[in-house]
Design brief:
Layout lengths: L1 H10 L11 E8 L3 H29 L2 H16 L2 H8 L1 E3 L1 H15 L3 E5 L8 H15 L1
Parallel strand pairs: 1-2, 1-3
Helix pairs in contact: 2-3, 5-6
């Protein structure tokens, strides 16, 4: 989608997107072991996916027939969001070494000016686990 943004920006006469024009919002979680990341973060990911899919399902049921076929792929996408998808394509979740590598990939691929790390994606991670993850994140990257 970043390429769509960059093309639309050029077509609208605003020139090339500079680094400071790109902000990424990403589910983010870091813990000492991958098993700990999974145990603490995966239930929240499942919750978010299930909630978003159920809300879209309500919209889908009320949508005109012509719009339903456009919404079905979005519904399937929401239902497919799981721990591995967050880790590999939608966010950053893993051990300190893994998140350091992943943020390096993100920087090379997208060159964002800012990254907003969403540590409680799904809303079910305890406050103490969120703050521990944030602290480990800060120690890892700075």
């Amino acid at each position: 989608m970043l390429e769509i943004y960059r093309n639309a920006r050029r077509e609208a006469g605003h020139g090339e997107a500079a680094t400071e024009h790109v902000t990424l919002l990403m589910p983010t979680y870091v813990a000492p072991t991958l098993q700990q990341v999974r145990d603490e973060f995966e239930p929240s990911i499942r919750h978010s996916s299930k909630l978003a899919a159920s809300l879209l399902q309500i919209v889908l049921e009320k949508a005109p027939e012509a719009e339903r076929k456009n919404l079905l792929p979005r519904l399937e996408h929401l239902r497919s969001i799981d721990f591995e998808k967050i880790r590999t394509t939608m966010g950053v979740a893993g051990t300190p070494a893994e998140i350091r590598d992943r943020f390096g990939e993100i920087e090379r691929e997208f060159n964002p000016g800012r990254v907003i790390a969403w540590f409680n994606y799904g809303g079910l991670v305890s406050h103490s686990n969120v703050t521990q993850s944030m602290s480990l994140f800060a120690k890892t990257l700075w």
